[in-house]
Amino acid sequence: MKSIYFKFVVTYTIIIAVGFLIFGTVLNNLTENYFVSQKQTQLVGEAEKIATGLALWYITGFLEQDRLRFEIRFLRDYLNASILLINKNANVILNSDEQVYIDDLNLRKIRDKVFEGEIAVKKLLIGDMIKREYLVIGYPVVINNHVVSGLLLITSTDEIRQTLKMYNRIIWLITLFEVLVVLIITYALTQRIITPIKKLAQASRKIAEGDFSQKIPIPNNSDDEISELISSFNYMTEKLENLEMMRKSFISNVSHELRSPLTSIRGFVEGILDKTIPDDKRDFYLTLVKEEVIKLNNLINQLLELSRLEWGKINLNLSEFKIYSVIAEELIKFEKRIEEKEIDVTLQVDEELVVKADRDLISRVVHNLLDNAIKYNKVGGKIYIYSEVVNGKAYITIQDTGVGIPEKLQKLIWERFYKVDESRSLENGVGLGLSIVKEIIKLHKQNIWVESEEGVGSKFTFTLDLK
Ligand SMILES: Nc1ncnc2c1ncn2[C@@H]1O[C@H](COP(=O)(O)OP(=O)(O)OP(=O)(O)O)[C@@H](O)[C@H]1O
Ligand SMILES: [Mg+2]
C-alpha cells in the first residue's frame, strides 16, 4: 500500500541510512589513519631504543645471543610485533619468532633504505596462504657512522581493523535503532494525519451522494492545520446543508406560488368554456384571469431579477443623482394606493442630497420598501421618509405605523419567500421584495437594517455613498 506512512518511513530511512553511511565512512578513514600513525610512531620510538641499545650491545659483543633472544621475546609480547635483525645481504640473523613470511624482494627494498641510514616505514601484505596487512618499520643499527645491521619491527594491522569493525557494528546498530524510532514516531504522526484524512474522504463521498449530515469530530487539544481543515470542512457541510434546505424550500415555494394563480386561471377558463359561468359574468372572470396572469408575470420577473442579482450578472451602472427625486418618483406611483388607504406621508429628505449609486436599482429598493410600508400599514396610518448624513454616508429611512414585525422574525424577513404571516398577506405578496432589496444593497457594498415593534410600526434604514 502506497500510504503516506509508507512514503514517510521510506524517505526517513533513506535519509538516516545515507547520513550514517557518510558518517561511518568518514569515521572509518579518520580512525584508521589515526591508529596506524599512532602505532607507527610508537614502533619507530621503540625501534630507536632497541637499535641504540640491545641490538648495538649484541653486535658489539656486550650481550649474548641467548640473553638477547630472551629480551627480544619479552619485547615482542609487549609490542605485539615481530623483531628481526638483518645483515647487509638481507639475511635474517635474528628473529623473535620462528618464521615471518616476508618475501625477499620487499626485504631487500627495506634493507636498501635502512643501510642508507634511513628509517623505512612500509605497509605490506604478508602471508603464506592468506595475506594480511602488516606495518613494517626498518631502523638502522649504527656503529661509528656505519650501518652494521637493520632492525625490523613487524606488526599486524589486524588489531586496528578489529576496532574499526566494532565501530562499524555500533554505527549500524545505532542506525537500526534510529530507523526503529523513526518507524514508531512516523507511525504516531501519520496516524494523526491519516485518520482525519480518511474520515474527510469518506464524508466527502457521502456529501457527494447527498448526505449532508456529515460532521467530523476535531481531535482533542489540537489547533494544528488538520484541525483547521476539519473545522473548515464541517463549516462547509453546514453551509451546504443550509443551501440544500434553501434549494428545496425555494423549489417548493416557487411551485406553490405558481400553482395557486394557475389553478384559479384554469378554473375560470374552464368555467367559461363549459358555460358554468354565464355569459354576462364572462368579463368579470376574464378580468380576474388577467389579474392572475399579471401576478404570475410579476412573480416571474421578480424571480428573474433576484437570480440575476444573486449570480452577480448585474454590472452596477453608477451615477450621481438626487435621492429626493427617486423617492418622489416612486411616491407618485403609489399615489392611488396611498389615497385609498388614507395614509399620511411626511417627506423630509434633503432635496439637494446627491448620492452615488445605480439609480434604477435604488428605485427598486425604494419601490419595494414603500410597497411594504403601504401594504403593512393600517388604514389612516402614517409613513415618514427622511434622510441624514453621518460620517460621509447618506442614511435613508422609511418608517411606517403598520403592524410591525416581531423581534425574533426580523432576521428572517430578508429570506426568499419569507412572509411573517401567510394569512396576513392578503395583498398578495410572495415574499421576494426584501430579498431583492437586500441583494441590491449588498451589491452596492452598503447596509440595510430594520427596527420594528409589533403593533407599533417598522423602520427600514439603508446607507448610500455620497457623490
Ligand atoms: N413595513 C413592514 N411592516 C410589517 N411587516 C413587513 C414590512 N415589510 C416587510 N414585512 C414582512 O416581511 C415579509 C417579507 O417582505 P417582502 O417584501 O420580502 O415580501 P412581501 O411584501 O410579502 O412580498 P413581495 O414584496 O414579494 O410582493 C412580509 O411578508 C411581511 O410579513
Ligand atoms: Mg414586499
TrEMBL record:
It comes from the Bacteria. InterPro entries: HAMP_dom (IPR003660), HATPase_C_sf (IPR036890), HATPase_dom (IPR003594), His_kinase_dom (IPR005467), HisK_dim/P_dom (IPR003661), HisK_dim/P_sf (IPR036097), HssS/ArlS-like (IPR050398), Sig_transdc_His_kin-like_C (IPR004358). It catalyses: ATP + protein L-histidine = ADP + protein N-phospho-L-histidine. GO terms for molecular function: ATP binding; phosphorelay sensor kinase activity. The chain crosses the membrane at residues 6-30, 170-189. SMART domains: HAMP (SM00304), HATPase_c (SM00387), HisKA (SM00388). It is a multi-pass membrane protein. Residues 191-245 form the HAMP domain. Gene3D superfamilies: 1.10.287.130, 6.10.340.10, Histidine kinase-like ATPase, C-terminal domain. Residues 253-467 form the Histidine kinase domain. The keyword Chaperone does not apply. It is an enzyme of class 2 (transferase). It is found in: Cell membrane. The keyword Lipid metabolism does not apply. Keywords: ATP-binding, Cell membrane, Kinase, Membrane, Nucleotide-binding, Phosphoprotein, Transferase, Transmembrane, Transmembrane helix, Two-component regulatory system. Its EC number is 2.7.13.3. One of its GO terms (cellular component) is plasma membrane. It holds the Pfam family HATPase_c. This is histidine kinase. The lineage of its organism: Bacteria, Bacillati, Bacillota, Bacillota incertae sedis, Caldicellulosiruptorales.
